[in-house]
Amino acid sequence: MMTLADIAALAEVSESTASRALRDNPVVNKETRLKVQQIAQQYQFNVNPTARSLRTQKSYTIAVIILFDAKSQQAISDPFLLEILGVIADELTHKGYDMLLSTSKTKDKDWKTYYIDAKRADGLIIIGQGEHDQRIEQLSHSKVPFVVWGASSGHDSFTVVGSQNRSGAEAAVSHLVAQGCKHIAFLGDYRHNEIEQRYLGYQDALQKAGLALNADYELITDFTAQDGYLKTQQQLFPLLPELDGIFAASDAIALGAMKALQEHGVQVPQQLAIAGFDDIAMSAYCSPALTTVKQDTINGGKLLVSKLLQQMDGEQAESELLPVRLLTRQSSARDRRV
Amino acid sequence: MMTLADIAALAEVSESTASRALRDNPVVNKETRLKVQQIAQQYQFNVNPTARSLRTQKSYTIAVIILFDAKSQQAISDPFLLEILGVIADELTHKGYDMLLSTSKTKDKDWKTYYIDAKRADGLIIIGQGEHDQRIEQLSHSKVPFVVWGASSGHDSFTVVGSQNRSGAEAAVSHLVAQGCKHIAFLGDYRHNEIEQRYLGYQDALQKAGLALNADYELITDFTAQDGYLKTQQQLFPLLPELDGIFAASDAIALGAMKALQEHGVQVPQQLAIAGFDDIAMSAYCSPALTTVKQDTINGGKLLVSKLLQQMDGEQAESELLPVRLLTRQSSARDRRV
DNA sequence: ATCCATACTGCAATCGATTGCAATAACGAA
DNA sequence: TTCGTTATTGCAATCGATTGCAGTATGGAT
Question: B178 and B80 in one domain?
């Protein structure tokens, strides 16, 4: 393995000069710079990131922390997660950062101590802010650069990037209403930040349509298809004669509910229309295809990264909620005449 | 930030002794050790991993590289991926390693140089060995510790952990045969290592059943539901009068195919039975529920980690293929009397 | 009393870069 | 000719640990 010292010797300059030359520091004579660079190239020299880290106190690494739901032990809508993770990875690579991944199921290490103080990472990206998390709040009182994917409260003490969950949900439910639905259930756990917004959007839509809210129609449901299936069987079947629409806080839940309904002989969408949220890969390929709200994963990932880097540059970064897109498919395609 | 020097001073010993004491080196007097440890605890001292890395030339970090399919730009069956990634993360954490994640879409950096030589990682886990990959072969000629998730050729020059794809596929197809299917199509891209095994299993089953192989029944299909849908429409519809079974190399493909068939008015499973591979979350919740082959993600992840650590300890690690489990569901539940 | 093995402890070098500051050379101005 | 600039370069300290080797003290054996 070549070291800077070797390169310096080969170029017949001091290590200091070699170091500067490699980073194209203009204080070094141009010819010298070129010579050093050329030699480094020739011998395939790369600076040792560990040594550099130790000296500069920067790691050029970002830690991405994926929070899991304490109850379901499941990440907030898996497929969505993998997508955004991919985007983040690409963006970070592109900016010259490595990505340290941590899936935090239990409340484990203290992030600041472990990642920042120990110089394992220069900043944090936290995905899946679930129920109100103590640790995130705590971070915001420190000087740790970090961004969160989730829901903005409007007056966050930290930078949040997320989807316009509320208006997206409103659009979906309004669409159900436009399809003639008058009794629409909500499936999801509104104690979860993002879901809460979707729940509010659901209410918004009902209110706008002059439809009454009905507590019986609000089912606290985990993120899984399984729970969507169960809760539908247990709590929705009795309401069936009246019920004519379901808005599920995630596609997984929606698909679970749809399964239960189909087994029970309910016609979707004729008797009951369904809409979900996320647009997971399967949504377009189930029967009937699922109407859903698609999040902008790509811009989400990019924004997370750029806002984090902004913070690391000492600038401030505002929270931002991205527009979503309603995809209407068969699961909500009812005749108007109800 | 506390440094080892601070702790040493507080404990009134030299840095050397402090360093040894913290690692419980028995050469240090027990009382001294305890004293140092106690003080370190009290002041919440943690060794700086960067400094340690520089000195010991180990990073206590493993790089996980996810290979994407060059064509579909998609990872080998996403949902499966996230699961195994989670397991690996947990295992590594448990063993005191950090996890550097890299999603390599393009042929980017030279892994050995970037991760190993630069001491960014002590070992590599490569997931998604797709079509024969030059880079993996190359790695095996170096002394880099690494393991691969994928298919074993039986005479690998490196350590592979994977599923018993061949026998799993055979079980699935034999099951279709037992359900009365006589004309079974295969959907998948057998140029991909793992899929090739599933393809062979498909052939095994047909052969055992005394059924003829038919090139028309073998459709090269990408990993996506979309391609499953398209290829089914384009190439399977003409064969429909005869065709009575499909074995898809992944659940995504199977669901795409099922969608196409249902739209076309084909009764699943009565007219045509379907089986997939992976058991993604949605498989149990589509209609009809999908018969599939479940991989042992948990043991897979654990094995990958343990075999890698074994290698890093200088031991050799054998390849290993894990048993899979056939889950029979409605999509293949036909009456026997055909 | 002398010597040696044993048990600890600490000095100083080392890992591989980066950087503040001093040193040198070269050049034009006075 | 002398002196202040400017342009370049290098010395040496530093980041925070780990470790080979040497040094000291203690106790037991002779």
Answer: no
Residue B185 has pLDDT above 90, yes or no: yes
- The three-class DSSP label of residue B320 is strand
Positive or negative torsion for Cα B226, B229, B232, B234: negative
CB contact under 8 A, B78 and A82: yes
Does B267 score more than 60 pLDDT? yes
Is there a single domain that holds both residue A192 and residue A280? yes
The answer to whether residue B300 sits within a structural domain is: yes
Residues A219 and A97 in one domain: no
Distant-in-sequence, close-in-space partners of B103: CB < 8 Å, separation ≥ 6:
A85, A86, A89, A90, B65, B66, B68, B75
Q: Which residues face B292 on adjacent strands?
A: B327
Instruction: Count how many domains chain A has.
Output: 3
Question: In this structure, what DSSP letter does residue B186 have?
Answer: E
Please tell me the predicted confidence (pLDDT) of residue B14.
Answer: 95
Cβ contacts of A94 within 8 Å, gap of 6 or more: none
Q: Does the pLDDT value for residue A337 go beyond 50?
A: no
Same domain, B205 and B113: no
Whether B82 sits inside 8 A of A82 (CB atoms) is yes
Q: What type of residue is B204?
A: D
Segment A272-287 mean pLDDT: 91
Q: Which A-chain residues 149-178 have CB contacts (< 8 A) with chain B?
A: none
Q: Which domain holds residue A19?
A: 4-47
Tell me the per-residue pLDDT of B38-92, one tens digit each, with 9 for 90 and over.
999 999 999 999 999 999 999 999 999 998 766 656 655 666 788 889 899 999 9
By residue count, chain A amounts to 338
Residue B85 resides in a domain: yes
Q: How confident is the model at residue B336 (pLDDT cuts 50, 70, 90)?
A: low
- Note the pLDDT of residue B67: 85
Q: How confident is the model over B295-318, as a mean pLDDT? A: 95
Q: What is the pLDDT of residue A129?
A: 67
User: Do A101 and A11 reside in the same domain of the chain?
Assistant: no
Minimal-distance CA residue of chain B relative to A59: B50
> What's the pLDDT score for residue B280?
85
What is the distance in angstroms between the Cα of A291 and the nearest Cα belonging to chain B? 15
What is the DSSP code string of A170-224?
HHHHHHHHHTT--SEEEES-TTSHHHHHHHHHHHHHHHHTTPPP-GGGEE---SS
Does residue A71 sit in the same domain as residue A156? yes
User: What is the spatial distance between Cα B100 and Cα B115, in angstroms, rounded to a whole number?
Assistant: 9
Looking at the structure, tell me whether residues A69 and A20 fall in a common domain: no
Asked if B287 is an interface residue toward chain A (Cβ–Cβ < 8 A), one would say: yes
pLDDT averaged over chain B?
92
Please report whether residue A52 resides in a domain. no
Residue of B64, B259, B282 lying closest to A255 (CB–CB): B282
For nucleotide D9, the protein residue with its alpha carbon nearest to C1' is: A17
Q: Quick check: B253 pLDDT over 80?
A: yes
Instruction: Determine, for residues B100 and A101 on separate chains, whether the beta-carbon distance falls below 8 Å.
Output: yes
User: Residue A337 domain-assigned?
Assistant: no
Annotate B87-120 with DSSP letters as a single string: HHHHHHHHTT-EEEEEEESS--S-HIIIIIITTS
| Same domain flag for A226 and A122 | no
A158 to A68, A144, A316: CA distances (angstroms): 20, 10, 10
What share of chain A has pLDDT > 90, as a percent?
A: 78
* B 43-82 residues inside an 8 A Cβ radius of A: 44, 46, 48-51, 53-54, 59, 61, 64, 75, 78-79, 81-82
Q: Using the Cα atoms of residue B246, residue B249, residue B251 and residue B257 in order, give the sign of their dihedral.
A: negative
For the cut 70, the answer to whether the pLDDT of residue A132 exceeds it is no
Task: Report the sign of the C-alpha dihedral through residues A139, A144, A145, A146, in that order.
Answer: negative
Size of interface A-B (CB pairs under 8 A): 148
